[in-house]
Amino acid sequence: MRKRYTAEQREKLVAEVRATGASAGEVAKRMGVTPSSAYLWMKAKAAAPAPSTPVFARVVPSIPQTTSAGTGMVLEVGGVRLHLREDFDAALLRRVVAALSGVP
Predict the structure, then answer these.
(1) Residue 95 and residue 63 share a domain
(2) Are residues 96 and 72 in the same domain?
(3) From CA 26, how far away is CA 18, in angstroms rounded?
């Protein structure tokens, strides 16, 4: 009969592998889990979409230099200041912020 593991047990194993850098097999052995189960859990976690955790950044309204400059804002992320116009590309901004934040 197969042993059933809880979601908490799976999450604990995956978290320990990521935190310690140990192999899934090593952590599985310490936790009394079969290595094949551990590797499947790691593979499933890697394929799952990342949870949407909020990322906070300081947003500062920008003061237009001239009337032709338009309105915008300054966004500071990871020590970098991004000057955004009101017609900025949101998808591009998400990729830039993720790269500056170290989020894969």
Answers:
(1) yes
(2) yes
(3) 12
Place of tokens 């970098």: 80
pTM: 0.45
81 phi/psi in degrees, rounded to 5:
-100, 125
What range defines the domain where residue 28 resides?
A: 7-47
Query: How does DSSP assign 47-100, residue by residue?
Result: HSPPP------EEEEPPPSSGGG--EEEEEETTEEEEEETT--HHHHHHHHHHH
Residue 75 and residue 69 in contact, taking contact as beta carbons nearer than 8 Å: no
Q: Could you tell me if 42 and 68 lie in one domain?
A: no
Structure tokens given for 10: 């799976």
**With the CA atoms of 27, 32, 37 and 42 taken in that order, what torsion angle do they form, in degrees rounded to the nearest 10?**
-30
Reported as a single tens digit per residue, the pLDDT across 61-85 is 656 555 445 577 888 776 778 888 8
Q: Which residues contact 5 (CB under 8 A, 6 or more apart)?
A: 33, 37
Same domain, yes or no, for 41 and 62?
A: no
